[in-house]
Amino acid sequence: MLALSLSLEHRFPVPDDTKKKRTWAGLICPVCRFVFRVPKDHDGAGVICPACHYLLNIPGIEKADPATSHSPEKTPKTLVPKPRDLKESKPIVSRPLSEKDAVSPSSAAASEKRRKGRRKKMNNPAGLDWDSDKAVTKSDAKPEEGGAMAWIVGGSLLGLTVVGIGVWLIVDNLDKKGSADDGVATPSSLGLPEPILLTEDEMTDDEKKRQQEIADSVKTGMSVLTNAEVVVKKFLNATTSAELEDLVRTPDVTIPRMRAWYAAKKWVPPGAKDVGYGGRVTVKGVMASMTVRLNDYSVKQIVLEKTPSGYLVDWESWVAWSSMDWDSLFEKRPTDPVEVRVHCTVDSYYNRLFNDDTKWTAVRLEHPFSDRAIYGYIDKGSLTLMQMLADLRQGSMIATTIKIQYPKDSVAKNQVIISEYIQNSWVRTNNNNNTDKQEAKDEKKTDPNTPR
């Protein structure tokens, strides 16, 4: 064995520096207080703490020649990090381990035990003592442990108790007064102030008039709803278009239009699920409007007129009647006026023959049963259309009955001239009946689909 060692030493010579016995010096990191050691023959350029990785200076070892030495501020190896929140501070310098810093075996054991305890506490929030193999009970824990949870639980129980007492007091108070009010809760029983009810002598004339108008309106609405409900249900549940003819107003005008309309479009009864849906009934003179919910759960308005023979339905407003089918307008492009019922909104589409916004006002026309829109243009110099311009400025969208026509040199399917403003409504007024009767006769003569 000795011969083998001498042979290896002969083949691989060991440097003289390595043969010297290496001695170590103990140091304490001034940043994290970690104790470590470095060789005493260290060159003094600096050392990195194994724990916090700060670059530290080794004290007491300095070069004698200032020309060859480098200042700690300019040499990267000796850069010392500055403590946070301090603009200027002294360099962090490690000091040698002295006898004062020597750790006794007992204190070292205690320190190691504290570190183990901290690790157990972090990894074992449930409080299990793995050394003793038993759980730490609440009585063994310190008073501050779980203090926040105790406050939360206690506060929650106190809040629930207060709420329960409050509910019990309210219910008890209602039970005591229930016999006098026949089980009906009054404002006083709920802790609210009693409403001030004025007697007839205390009200002014305007207040009396207003109260009477409200009472009459409610009475009229209930009467209309009761009497018109039967007619509306018959109209919406009719199986054929012929059954509708006895239920529409102005039969001389409407029936010819209905026959021509249903010759091209088959009548499909929508059904009535709820008449007067939401209690919405509007009465204006002999005309009444109410909301109905159909079998497909869609909601629509239906208008009726009170006649000597009872309430009758305004069919034109129900189907948004036009003298020409809406989709046919795009293909036929009639140059003669066509009556349509549409929703109107002011628009900013100026193009082709209508590109001058100083002469025209653009209006978007939408039919309720079609996705195709037409742009109508109002001549700003036309006195007959001034009322339509005024109505359009008042609201964002209005339901109107108008007449439109295509220009003779039309190049677009969706641009027309608004030639006449009939009314701001889809319901035909009684003043227009004579005109409509004549138009209905003309339509009956010229329409080949109308039955003879």
Please tell me about this protein's structure.
With 452 residues, the protein is an alpha+beta fold. The protein folds into four domains: 21-100, no CATH class; 150-195; 210-319, Nuclear Transport Factor 2, Chain: A, CATH 3.10.450; 326-425, OB fold (Dihydrolipoamide Acetyltransferase, E2P) (Beta Barrel). The protein contains ten helices and 17 strands. It has helices at residues 2-11, 16-19, 105-123, 147-181, 205-237, 251-264, 315-319, 326-332, 386-394, 433-446, and strands spanning 24-28, 35-39, 47-48, 55-56, 95-96, 128-129, 134-135, 272-275, 281-284, 287-294, 299-307, 310-313, 338-346, 360-366, 373-379, 398-405, 415-423. It is elongated and about 125 Å long. The chain starts with a helix and ends in a 6-residue tail after the last helix. Mean pLDDT is 74; it is low at 1-9, 61-80, 84-89, 127-144, 178-185 and 444-452.
Topology:
Layout: H1 2-11, H2 16-19, E1 24-28, E2 35-39, E3 47-48, E4 55-56, E5 95-96, H3 105-123, E6 128-129, E7 134-135, H4 147-181, H5 205-237, H6 251-264, E8 272-275, E9 281-284, E10 287-294, E11 299-307, E12 310-313, H7 315-319, H8 326-332, E13 338-346, E14 360-366, E15 373-379, H9 386-394, E16 398-405, E17 415-423, H10 433-446
Parallel strand pairs: 15-17
Antiparallel strand pairs: 1-2, 1-5, 3-4, 6-7, 8-10, 9-10, 10-11, 11-12, 13-14, 13-16, 14-15, 16-17
Helix pairs in contact: 6-10
